[in-house]
Design goal:
The strands form two sheets. A five-stranded mixed barrel has the order 3-4-5-7-6. It is elongated. Helix 4 (199-210) crosses helix 6 (232-244). By secondary structure, it is α+β, with helices and mostly antiparallel strands. It contains six helices and ten strands, in the order βαββββαββααβααββ. A hairpin with a 2-residue loop joins strand 6 (117-127) and strand 7 (130-140). The longest helix has 33 residues, at 145-177. It folds into two domains: 38-164, Nucleic acid-binding proteins (OB fold (Dihydrolipoamide Acetyltransferase, E2P)), CATH 2.40.50.140; 199-259, Arc Repressor Mutant, subunit A. Residues 64-140 form the OB domain. Residues 13-37 are annotated as: Disordered. Residues 13-30 have a biased composition (Polar residues). Residues 163-255 form the Replication protein A C-terminal domain.
Length: 263
């Protein structure tokens, strides 16, 4: 098959009826944030998501698309559990079987084998403290270009949501500033952010982005540079946050990182 270091993909569905309602039954929909029906992500973003829906730059993602390699398959009478892996991490994906459909049509079960690349649509849930992808649809990948395309879509989607977030923020600041005194100091802290990152986050991000090594820069090398300016706990929190927001990703292991805009 293809090398694990290949780049990964997914797509958007404009139809709001593609998979029905992704919310838990009888659970009220949230309206305080923007929502996107479907968006491509990498596994690390799923692993670092909170208890609710995955959020990218303030936009809640109801259904995700992940492209990954199948590492293990466990068949049961009511479900199939896949262990999937991309270049950012590994997680479980669960596909529940429709018994009636199986009796009528054998095509209802995904035709997937270990080491195949697949594109999975579903939503991310937390089960016993671990993130699990509840799969709605699993499509075997037969074209290696789909893997590269997915990674490109992940990057493009994050940049688009970042731009939309900034546009909303600017419009909000314009409205609120009209009601503030001319000498008000409110909001000055935000004016120092770059690409949505504050100066301390940007310090770490620039170290990662400046690396020209294929495997990226190691966590140890980064901390040697910034240890006089921040504690190790703050440094670790910054790395974890940037991974969750899609700014960076781990490469050969959990100790080496590259920036998503470094492709």
């Amino acid at each position: 098959m293809w090398n694990d270091q290949s780049v990964v993909g997914g797509g958007f569905f404009n139809s709001t009826n593609q998979f029905g309602n992704a919310n838990t039954p009888n659970q009220p929909q949230k309206t305080s944030r923007r929502t996107s029906r479907t968006a491509p992500i990498v596994i690390r973003q799923a692993l670092h998501s909170g208890d609710g829906d995955i959020t990218i730059w303030g936009t809640e993602i109801m259904i995700v698309s992940i492209v990954a390699r199948v590492r293990n398959i466990r068949m049961q009478s009511t479900k199939i559990t896949y262990t999937i892996q991309d270049i950012t991490g590994r997680m479980r994906a669960v596909f529940w079987l429709d018994q009636e459909a199986m009796e009528e049509d054998d095509k209802s079960t995904p035709k997937v084998q270990v080491n195949d690349y697949v594109q999975i649509y579903g939503n991310v849930k937390t089960n016993k403290g671990k993130k699990v992808l509840m799969a709605f649809k699993i499509i075997p990948i037969t074209d290696v270009n789909a893997i590269t395309f997915h990674y490109l879509q992940c990057i493009n989607n994050r940049l688009k949501m970042e731009a939309d977030s900034k546009k909303t923020k600017v419009n909000g600041n314009t409205t609120s500033s009209a009601a503030m005194p001319a000498n008000s100091m409110v909001g000055m802290a935000d004016s120092t952010s770059v690409n949505g990152l504050n100066p301390r986050q940007m310090m770490v991000f620039n170290l990662i982005r400046a690396s020209t090594l294929e495997q990226g820069i190691s966590k140890q090398d980064m901390y040697v540079t910034v240890k006089d300016r921040m504690s190790q706990m703050e440094f670790e929190n910054i790395l974890e946050w940037m991974c969750g927001e899609g700014h960076i990703y781990s490469t050969i292991d959990e100790e080496h990182f590259r920036a998503t805009d470094a492709f």
